[in-house]
TrEMBL record, chains A, B:
GO cellular component, one term: cytosol
UniProt-listed InterPro entries: Pep_tRNA_hydro_II_dom_sf, PTH2
Protein name: peptidyl-tRNA hydrolase
Pfam families: PTH2 (PF01981)
Reactions catalysed: an N-acyl-L-alpha-aminoacyl-tRNA + H2O = an N-acyl-L-amino acid + a tRNA + H(+)
Family: Belongs to the PTH2 family.
Amino acid sequence: MDHENYSKLVLVIRNDLKMGKGKVAAQCGHASVGAYRLAVKRPNVLKAWEACGQTKITLKCDSEEQMMELHQTAKAIGLISHVVRDAGQTQVAPGSKTVCAIGPGPADQIDQITGHLKLY
Amino acid sequence: MDHENYSKLVLVIRNDLKMGKGKVAAQCGHASVGAYRLAVKRPNVLKAWEACGQTKITLKCDSEEQMMELHQTAKAIGLISHVVRDAGQTQVAPGSKTVCAIGPGPADQIDQITGHLKLY
């Protein structure tokens, strides 16, 4: 498969919130559905991602500021990006931004923005 | 909100596979999108779940056998249920069944099937 055409979704997780593993998993569920709903409006993007097995990669960041900067940069270059705001009934304050889904989209573009982040 | 009408999605995670937290989060992303896609075909179910903030709960089970039994029982009573089979490029054998999403659907029905499971 041509790397330039490879499609993926990255889930950037707020590591500073110290969420439990089940909480993180549920937030990544929210983020994935949010990204999927945006992708439905771009059939070619969705098709490419499905052809790549709906690849999902979990990465970590250290602050809300850093996450929002990634979100804005992603949107500025035309990528799908979706931030999850948690209802905050457990573990985090209401309205906390917990995970940012960037993509689905071309791996090379996503790597430009998130390539420096470590795997979660 | 009436408990009987409360809608949720549970993500039943194979605890015996000893997946890392990032792996589990990505698998729950797959499971959530899979369940969402099935829910799109049942607009009333989807609407109810969205009205409840797309509640997602992570639970754990101890074997593939137990997970598949939950999946079959859920389907038998008419609930949405979706099992994730992992491509197995990391951590687990190819084709491993990692997470079962049950719902979205009425909390009382889902609790009948999964109420005995512990939170992940």
